[in-house]
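2024-03-11 09:14:02 INFO queue: dequeued item DUF805 domain-containing protein, len=167
2024-03-11 09:14:02 INFO validating residues
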Amino acid sequence: MTHLSVPRDYASTLVQATADSTLLGAYTPLPGASPVAAIRRYFCKYAVFFGRASRSEYWWIVLLSTVVYGVGGALAGATQITTAGVSHFGGVITEVSIGAGLIGTFLLVYFLATILPTISLSVRRLHDVGLSGWFVLLGLVPILGSITLFVLFLLSSNPAGQRFDKC
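2024-03-11 09:14:37 INFO prediction written
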């Protein structure tokens, strides 16, 4: 006769297993997500436009992108040495250093690699608030659209958002 052994800390094991399964399988938000968990879910749900994303999941990614673009922009500005001259036709000639060009290229690649998961994350965040993902198109409206989306992303979870979870 064999006995099943139950870990002493069964609750923490269950919580860890649940947290691991929420990375790919579940479509519910992960409140209080750590930066690592938020980044992992961001890339694991690269193009998942259903389900929901918590405020912490969303804002950790916003912080990451802000740091990447801020540091990249600062480095590009610091390495950009322009030399100006006058062409034979009266125009001004400027040259940009290679460092600024490489950093700009990196930022372009980062943008292209993250545009789809960022839109996906924004749609899932709107679902968590209880709104349709189509509200993400408000970002196309100059100034007011961005302000409106900013306010919507700050709202807390709404139980009505459960309708966007996939069964």
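2024-03-11 09:14:37 INFO annotate: Confidence is low (pLDDT under 50) at residues 10-25.
2024-03-11 09:14:38 INFO item closed
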